[in-house]
Design brief:
mainly alpha, two-stranded antiparallel ribbon, DNA-binding transcription factor activity (chains A, B), DNA-binding, Transcriptional regulator, MarR family protein (chains A, B), disordered C terminus, homodimer, WH-like_DNA-bd_sf (chains A, B), WH_DNA-bd_sf (chains A, B)
DNA sequence: ACATATACTTGGAGTCGTCAAGCATCGGAA
DNA sequence: TTCCGATGCTTGACGACTCCAAGTATATGT
């Protein structure tokens, strides 16, 4: 319907994919007492990676530090994370998953990966997609990438 | 860092793409006095397609009808849309772009398509990506697709 | 005509998000 | 050591978005 460019069509597809995945896991979010912003935050907390500071979370979520305070409060109320002062710098607080938090995140990731429309592609197709998306997102990204340690 | 599946990695990439594109057009949104939800709504209003009713917008945006009322109010305040009663059914109201609305949408789409990381791919790569994404999003989508007329 | 359904709006409440200001801590210079 | 400017987080105020429940207007079928 729209005589627009290929890039435009791709943008629509990517957005629709994100949207469809979100919609597909709505029931799990409800079970886990999570909203989308909270689920995004939980998603960032990879149990296999070092626990991030509040500030690092703010960078990853592209939001104000005070928003991280808010989200961390909520996740703490749900017993999904703990906030502990970093060793060596008592200003910095580190977000760590609790056992419940790890389990909640596992369920979240499982639901998302099994229900997303992406799951309908074959492994070979997924690999091709991965290659293309990685190339698009590759370094020299937006140059506004001062690393944050 | 995460021993997760390929699908998981793809989800991260797709989400990051959507996020990066949003971030890249922030200044344009500010110029146009748009927030993200408002920009999403404006994005849906393709000038080349028939003007949608409020309800159709609610379906497209996956939100409550009252939210569309709210968004349409804002877009109207900005002189981007008009709300006119549909011929034949005076309950139904149709959202139409004004000239300013068309221009705002044009700027929005232009900024998004030129600045998204997707724009770094060659035309051939974009076509491959389009094929894969289209196949993933293809019909039998989520079956919850009763059409809405 | 009348009941029922549909399209939209209104009011109330809760979540999310930012900014400005404040507190605690750190690090370097005097 | 002591002081001062940065840094990390929190708080408070406010606005934007979103849903739900209830209300109004119009349409449809009996």
């Amino acid at each position: 319907m729209d005589g627009e460019s290929l890039t435009y069509q791709l943008l629509r597809l990517v957005h629709a994919m994100d949207d469809a995945t979100d919609a597909a896991i709505q029931d799990v979010l409800t079970e886990l007492n999570l909203t989308h912003p909270l689920a995004d935050a939980l998603w960032q907390l990879d149990p296999a990676a070092p626990a991030p500071s509040m500030r690092q979370m703010a960078v990853r979520l592209r939001c104000d530090p005070s928003t991280v305070t808010f989200l961390a409060d909520r996740l703490h109320q749900l017993s999904y994370v703990t906030r502990t002062a970093a060793t060596g710098d008592r200003r910095t607080k580190v977000l760590e998953l609790t056992d419940q938090g790890r389990e909640a995140r596992r369920r979240l990731v499982e639901a998302a990966t099994t229900r997303t429309p992406l799951a309908r592609l074959t492994a070979a197709e997924q690999r091709r997609l991965h290659t293309l998306m990685t190339r698009a997102m590759a370094p020299s990204a937006t140059e506004e990438e001062k690393r944050y340690g």
